[in-house]
Amino acid sequence: MAAKKVKIDEKKVARLALDGCQMRTIARIMDIDQETLNRRCKTLIKKKRAERKHKLLKAQNRLVEKGDKAMLIWLGKSVLNQTERKVISGDSARPFIIELHEFGEKKEEKADGDKD
After folding, report:
1. Residue 72 contacts residue 64 (beta carbons within 8 Å)
2. Exposed, middle or buried, 106 (CB in 10 Å: 0-12/13-18/19+)?
3. What CA dihedral angle connects 35, 36, 38 and 43, to 10 degrees?
4. Which residues are paired to 109 by β-bridges?
């Protein structure tokens, strides 16, 4: 005898996916097995997640258009792969030295400013 097919409220699944819920969260809320949800609603969930991403991007773009500098920088880094580069230059006659210290380690300074 075949197992009884579980009824799934696809409108509720769609709303939860659009809200950003993970597959396991949707399955728990719907009280169904995650594999069942994946097998029967995978396409719907992917579509609603894509819609969510589109809505978020539109909201971010509106913030950029209003002059939100932080959002402009964030979008530049995440969408355009822009990075902040720091150029270090110095006197070529003297070597460039980088000291690495363990977390919490602090060197004592002498009165003349030299380190131990």
Report:
1. yes
2. exposed
3. 160
4. 115
Residue type, 74: W
User: Quick check: helix, strand or coil at residue 55?
Assistant: helix
Summary count for the chain: helices (H), strands (E) = 4, 0
Q: Which residues of 44-82 are buried (b: 16+ CB within 10 A; e: fewer)?
A: bbeebeeeeeeeeeeebeeebeeeeeebeeebeeeeeee
For 15-62, what is each residue's pLDDT tens digit? 999 999 999 999 999 999 999 999 999 999 999 999 999 999 899 999
Q: Which residue has the higher pLDDT, 105 or 77?
A: 77
Q: Report whether 21 contacts 28 (CB < 8 A).
A: no
61 Cβ contact partners less than 8 Å away, ≥ 6 residues apart: 75
